[in-house]
């Protein structure tokens, strides 16, 4: 594959063997223009109010960083309204960078989207915004931060389904019902937990929900970020695929702003 294909998979930190893109070592601090195909990344363009493939030009700017590390700059443009955003990639090679077909990995990716574009979510209003925040925290290697946003979604959607299904969020003693109990009641009625996460007797689900909901350490949070994110997206999709539930929630506008979600434990009604 060409280097542009690997870069186009950002923010995924993929590794692949790519066609040669440097025919000599690029020393520290030296620039070179490289032609590796166009980088193309999908974003939701705010001007177009639609998903667009933002594209780079034919040439990218490559800066030598170390023996096996280069920094690459690109300016990506919406093909329709011509709005532009900047993207930066740090690429690390397993061997020498100037060999015939180096195996390289996208180590870091940062984009500067300002108010031009947003990452593509799952089409669930405010939850998309929280998913994007979780992802950005993860990309900055902020494990606990990323979990806070996933937890907000997890709790807000459970609370919304409970409200629509008239499941009380207040326990018998007049206090808030523990989140775990509320979730169990909601799941019994509406099966919001994705099958993939409940098929092992809820072991995987329990483990991940403990990480999302409890106080896991940074390293564990980063390691389990993607499975936790899949779990939360699965819950959103399950709720959205239930027509009755979707109508009710659409009517509420996937509202998360009216909820006061504390950093851990119960939901404040
Ligand atoms: Zn546009």
Could you characterize what this model shows?
With 269 residues, the chain is an alpha+beta fold. The protein folds into two domains: 3-118, no CATH class; 126-252. 38% of the residues lie in helices and 21% in strands. The protein contains nine helices and nine strands. It has helices at 3-7, 126-139, 143-164, 179-190, 195-198, 203-213, 218-223, 225-241, 243-252, and strands at 15-17, 31-34, 40-45, 50-55, 60-66, 69-77, 84-93, 103-112, 117-118. The strands form two sheets. It has a six-stranded antiparallel β-sheet with strand order 1-8-7-6-5-2, with no helix packed on it. A three-stranded antiparallel β-sheet has the order 4-3-9. Helix 2 (126-139) runs antiparallel to helix 3. Residues 256-269 have low confidence and may be disordered. The structure holds zinc ion (ZN).
Outline of the structure:
The chain has 269 residues and is of the alpha+beta class. It is built from nine helices and nine strands.
Looking at this protein, list some descriptive labels.
single chain, 269 residues, alpha+beta, six-stranded antiparallel β-sheet, three-stranded antiparallel β-sheet, 38% helix, 21% strand, binds zinc ion
């Amino acid at each position: 594959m060409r280097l542009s294909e690997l870069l186009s998979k950002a923010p995924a930190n993929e590794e692949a063997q790519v066609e040669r893109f440097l025919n000599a070592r690029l020393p520290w601090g030296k620039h070179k223009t490289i032609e590796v195909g166009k980088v193309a990344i999908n974003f939701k363009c705010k001007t177009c109010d639609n998903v667009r493939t933002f594209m780079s030009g034919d040439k990218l700017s490559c800066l030598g960083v170390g023996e096996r590390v280069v920094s690459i700059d690109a300016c990506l443009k919406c093909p329709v309204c011509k709005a532009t955003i900047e993207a930066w990639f740090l690429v690390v090679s397993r061997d020498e960078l100037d060999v015939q077909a180096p195996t390289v990995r996208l180590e870091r990716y940062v984009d500067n989207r300002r108010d031009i574009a947003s990452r593509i979510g799952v089409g669930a209003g405010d939850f998309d915004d929280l998913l994007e925040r979780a992802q950005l925290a993860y990309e900055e290697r902020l494990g606990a931060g990323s979990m806070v946003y996933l937890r907000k979604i997890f709790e807000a959607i459970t609370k919304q389904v409970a409200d629509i299904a008239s499941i009380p969020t207040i326990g018998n003693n007049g206090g808030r019902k523990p989140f775990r109990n509320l979730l169990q009641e909601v799941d019994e009625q509406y099966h919001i937990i994705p099958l993939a996460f409940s098929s092992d007797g809820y072991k995987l689900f329990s483990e991940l929900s403990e990480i999302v909901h409890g106080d896991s350490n940074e390293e564990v949070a980063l390691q389990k970020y993607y499975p936790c994110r899949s779990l939360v997206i699965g819950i959103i999709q399950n709720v959205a695929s239930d027509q009755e539930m979707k109508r009710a929630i659409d009517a509420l506008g996937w509202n998360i702003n009216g909820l006061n979600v504390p950093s851990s434990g119960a939901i404040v009604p």
